[in-house]
Amino acid sequence: MDGLKGGAWPDGHEGSDNDSVTSRGLTSMVSVGQDSSSIQPETYVNKGFEPSLGDSAHTLATQATEDSRKPLYGVDENEERGNWTGRFDFLLSLLGYAVGLGNIWRFPYLAYRNGGGAFLIPYIIMMCIVGVPLFYLEATLGQFCSCGPMTCWEFAPIFKGVGISMVVVSALTSIYYNMVLAWAYYYLFLSLTSELPWQTCNNKWNTNVCSLKLPLVTCDVGTKEKNGTCSNGNGITGIWNESLFKETTHIKLVSPAEEYWNIQALAMSPGIEKFGVPKWDLVLCLMLAWVIVFFCLIKGIKSTGKVVYFTAIFPYVVLTILFFRGVTLEGAGKGVEFFIKPTFDRLLDGRVWKDAAVQIFFSMSIAGGGLVTLSSYNRFHNNILVDTIIVSIGDIFTCIFGGFVIFSFLGYMAHKQGTTVDKVAADGAGLAFVVYPDAVTSLPAPPFWSILFFLMLITLGLDSQFAMVETVLTGSMDQYPFLRSKKTFVILIICCIFFLLGLPFTCPGGMYLLQLMDNYVGGWTLLIIGFSENIAIAYCYGLTRFFKDLEVMLGKPQRIWWKICWYGLSPAAVLFIFVFTFVDYTPSKYGDYLYPGWADAMGWIMAAAAVLAIPITALYKIYKTDDPATPLAKLRFLITPTAEWGPALVKHRALIKHVPGFILDPYEEKARHVDPRYRSKSSLPTAPSQISIVSKSTGPRYNFSNDVSSRSNISMSTTGISEVSIVTQLTMESYV
After folding, report:
1. Which of 109, 110, 150, 449 could be bridged to 440 by S-S, CB 3.0 to 4.6 A?
2. Going by C-beta distance under 8 Å and a sequence separation of 6 or more, which residues neighbour residue 461?
3. Among 471, 470, 378, which Cα is nearest to 144's?
4. Is 96 annotated as a binding residue?
5. Mean pLDDT value across residues 67-85
């Protein structure tokens, strides 16, 4: 027997007002001949749902409001999954997730490297055709079905592997991302002192090439040696020509901040081949990082929704303070000029457009599953379009504003060292833990500015970390709903496992591993996931129906612009990035260190493991689908929406008028018509639900399979089931 696909009745049964089941919650009594339109709107009450008996597949009890499109805050609309407590809980969480460390330590460097102010042209164009459309697509998907990335694929079940890949990528990324936060905690603790440990070259970890031991001098008094040094009768006093010194001696001077980072903080090994053992101080900082994540997520979105009021707003307070301090420094103008001076001929270089698209794709946190997760806790009629626009503008603003802050300090640093800005410019960890710590040492009260900077890094990263771990948590609980009652225990297990998996990053070779994972796991894997997600909705589900869904949810028709992007511009741009990434591929490097071939192979394996879930799950579903006879028929079956697809709550499902035969209450319907995919019971505890079904059908009979354990008195006849009263326990399969 074919399942209920697209909300249609099986075996050609059309379904009318009289013989369809109209319900409020799981409990409904519809008499023969009663028109469903006569049922007055009221609070939806699921009399069969008893919270004390355990979680069910969906909680259909909800709260009524005078205006059905006005979200009611303070009370959960969806009692089982929960909702954001306040309007700004979600907006700030979304902003914090999208705006992360990359906006501060990646974008300014890319802008400087790719034409300065001219880089904003491809950046904004790519934001319009890739960033905003895919961000909006993913956020609306989660809000419409109130499901996380593991269970939001009922519109085309063959794509469920995309959701699995999202969760895997978020899990892997959160493991190494929290190590970056652990380093920030480490430096924050070091800043709680009167003198920063990287201010001088007189420490036990400093070497003879520490830059303060050979400062840049004019050598007005003394002898200018041919190797670029300046000497007097007592020895070398400094370096008068840095380039000549490097050329003749082949020695590269290292700042005390860089020596501290490499030698003392990381105890970095010569390469990934010599990995070493964990450093106890970094282990403790990593443990602290996971303890903070655990306590902030202990109540799910109810706790994180409050934490983000600090973590999402505080970075902008610090950026503002640093901005006014930075632009008043000597030489800051030079740095800002390097950042914004346009070089328009660079726009003809394909790499500039590729860098802009990649930065947009990753800075907006697209395809990681976090957008689906966060928006799935929204109320159904939340205006997600406004949220998308606010977050997109906030992302652009943070990138540009952060660039002014960072390059004002880089200009000051270049002025103090008597060199050019390009010599001190850096990105990634080099900027956060070497360049900026070095810059603050020459400011008044260095510990104060150091504390501010690392607090900003921590709060910037925490929001993204929360969302990634929440993605794993939500995916697990949506897939196995019985875990919802054990949420605290589940998040504890996740944090403990991820802490143990993160211990290799605390070793001397850990930085090489982190950089490798960032290059591969957080790279082209997201492009494949984002492209698959776009194709699934645009070409399998169909934008015509999706637009109607969004009109029901948001109360107004969607702009044609979204259709243009989702049908063509966005997938084409993502495909361009993906192809160019491989055309422009170079083996992994960290500074001057070139990774061995086996390390690159390990990176490819990690990336492949994340995205192989997409084809493997698709093939598994085709194999497990029995009813259609041919593979092509199975494929059609698996790209057609199931009966369960749609809004989570019955009162919102009742608004779907554009789908003929749409099932109002699929979980009640499953008691009579069992989809062949649901052939094994899960251990999902469900509450008994009373269902009264009245039917005039004289069509083919439907047999109950072992998916429904029923205790019933069923009156059967050759002319139809005249009346059936069933006390039943519904089960719902959590299938792969």
Report:
1. 449
2. 100, 101, 177, 180, 181, 184
3. 378
4. yes
5. 77
Contact 136, 392 (CB under 8 A): no
Res. 724: pLDDT tops 80: no
Q: Provide the pLDDT confidence category of residue 20 given band limits of 50, 70 and 90.
A: very low
Query: Is residue 98 annotated as involved in ligand binding?
Result: yes
Q: Tokens at residue 638, please? A: 């698996």
Predicted confidence (pLDDT) at residue 31 exceeds the cutoff of 50: no
> Is this structure's pTM higher than 0.90?
no
pLDDT tens-digit readout, 441-488: 888 899 999 999 999 999 999 999 999 999 999 999 989 988 888 989
pLDDT of residue 720: 35
pLDDT for the residue numbered 68 = 55
Tokens 């974008």: give the residue. 107
Q: Give the three-state DSSP class for 692.
A: strand
Burial profile 548-570: b = 16 or more Cβ within 10 angstroms, e = fewer = bbbebbbeeebeeebbebbeeeb
Biggest CA-to-CA distance, the chain: 116
CA distance 431 to 428: 6
Q: What is the dihedral of CA 719, 722, 728, 734, to 10 degrees?
A: 50
Q: Given CA atoms 545, 548, 554, 559 in this order, what sign does their dihedral have? A: positive
Residue closest to 44 by CA, chosen among 552, 660, 482, 654: 654
233 is in an annotated binding site: no
What's the angle, vertex CA 370, arms to CA 59 and CA 299, rounded to 5? 55
Percent of the chain surpassing pLDDT 90: 49
Residue 518 known to bind ligand: no
281 is in an annotated binding site: no
Helix/strand/coil percent split, the chain, to 5 = 55, 5, 40
Residue 363 annotated as lining a ligand binding site:
yes
Which helix (H) or strand (E) element contains residue 358?
A: helix 350-363
Tokens 């009221």, residue located: 42
- The region that residue 542 occupies, defined by phi over 0 for left and psi between -120 and 50 for alpha, beta otherwise, is left
Helix axes 314-326, 446-479, angle to 10 degrees: 150
